[in-house]
Write a structure and sequence with these properties.
The complex is a heterodimer of chains A (118) and B (114). Chain A is mainly β and 118 residues long. Chain A has no helices and twelve strands. In chain B, strand 5 and strand 6 form a beta hairpin. Chain B starts with a strand and ends with a strand. Classes of the chains: A mainly beta (118), B mainly beta (114). At the A-B interface, strand 5, strand 6 and strand 11 of A face strand 4, strand 5 and strand 10 of B.
Chain lengths: 118, 114
């Protein structure tokens, strides 16, 4: 079974501060990794994804994440946050071992709430 | 945004009543999913479908059933709603033919069981 752990439940930053949100996963095989963002009252939107290749992945709105296979980690970073980044962030993993039911299930972390103070 | 419509968007009902939530997609994607989102739990998979009439259980399937009679529609039914099923429900779709597609989410249904 796969699992995801997000280290921080709530992070509070001032505008222009740097951001790093931790994500570790557990899975004994090849994975796809995702970060989703959920703005207040909205649905989840894909920020960035890693499938293969360069472990440093760039996403939308200046976010990036680095896949470190040896640490089973996929931390999200942004050099300078803005008030508009206030949202909840979810890390997710999809194990690529064929499940037999034809579906590669996505497992989410519990989320990290980011509050950016102007 | 992916063509996913969830209905209703909000519902309040009483314990013991049946409830059906609908997810409709216009993308012709093969895979559809129902999640519930609760504070401190993130998103948890209830059921998913990998084709018409093909469904399987997720992590938190007790008390829920699903049906998929057409590619575009995936229904989630609470046969006898309980207060513990008060939650926000999200539908998602994906197409994995090339194994490089993420899941896209609908806008959610906020369900309150009194």
């Amino acid at each position: 079974a796969q699992s995801v752990s997000q280290h921080n439940h709530h992070v509070i930053l001032s505008e222009a501060a740097s951001l790093e949100l931790g994500c570790n996963y557990s899975y004994g095989g090849t994975v796809n990794l995702f970060w989703y963002v959920q703005y207040p009252g909205q649905h989840l939107q894909l920020l960035l994804k890693y499938f293969s290749g360069d472990p440093l992945v760039k996403g939308i709105k200046g976010f990036e994440a680095e896949f470190i296979k040896s640490k089973f980690s996929f931390n999200l970073r942004k050099p300078s946050v803005q008030w508009s980044d206030t949202a909840e962030y979810f890390c997710a993993v999809r194990g690529l071992r064929y499940s037999g039911a034809g579906s590669y299930q996505l497992t989410f972390g519990k989320g990290t709430k980011l509050s950016v103070i102007p | 945004d992916a063509g996913i419509t969830q209905s209703p968007r909000h519902k309040v009902t009483e314990t013991g009543t049946p409830v059906t939530l609908r997810c409709h997609q216009t993308e012709n994607h093969r895979y559809m999913y129902w999640y519930r989102q609760d504070p401190g739990h993130g998103l948890r998979l209830i059921h998913y479908s990998y084709g018409v009439k093909d469904t399987d259980k997720g992590e938190v399937s007790d008390g829920y059933s699903v049906s998929r009679s057409k590619t575009e529609d995936f229904l989630l039914t609470l046969e006898s709603a309980t207060s513990s099923q008060t939650s926000v429900y999200f539908c998602a779709i994906s197409e994995l033919r090339d194994k490089n597609q993420p899941q896209h989410f609908g806008d959610g249904t906020r369900l309150s069981i009194l």
